[in-house]
Amino acid sequence: MIKVKICGVRTAEDAMKCVACGADAVGMLLAESPRRITVGQAADIVKRLPPFVTPVVVMMPSAAEEVIEAAGVIGPGAIQLQGDEPPEMLLEIKKALPHIKLIKAVHVGGGGEMDKARAYEDIADAILLDTMSPGRGGSGRTHDWALSGEIVAGIKSPVVLAGGLSPSNVAEAIMRVGPFAVDVASGVEGNGRVKDIKLIEQFIGNARGA
User: What gap in Å lies between CA 16 and CA 19, rounded to an integer?
Assistant: First the structure.
């Protein structure tokens, strides 16, 4: 069954909406973003999550030490690296945090996506395919799903599909790409970037029915 991550969660209340709808993972952004929260806020959300729901921290660190320090306070189940982190940084993080899964984002639309994915597939626990944008994600735009499908077929790591997904297109995206998991933020939000429980329910239902 396809896994679902709801990202850009900013409050414990929104996290509980995701849990109630059956999300497998909840993402919290420490990277620069309108949905950015503090390390302390992320730690409070993680404390509220029940077992078997994975807390994922999204970062664009300049050094491995930033990740290691944040993880020590928050206690995430996985860390998603959303910037231009070199493979050597991932190796350093894995050595310090062997119990935490690493997800490496590859941005589709900038060229060389297959080579980039292959550069991380033996280090990262999963590759996340997001749409290339100035902010390195969070654009609300889809990308070339045909290329994403080629990457899924061409690497051995699990692939998480992100970028412009919503209840209306997630089933088609899954059928065309064949990812291990899907990731959504703006596609399940109402006004003020508050998570909408009806949209979350629709998204998860359509994803798992694909």
Answer: 5
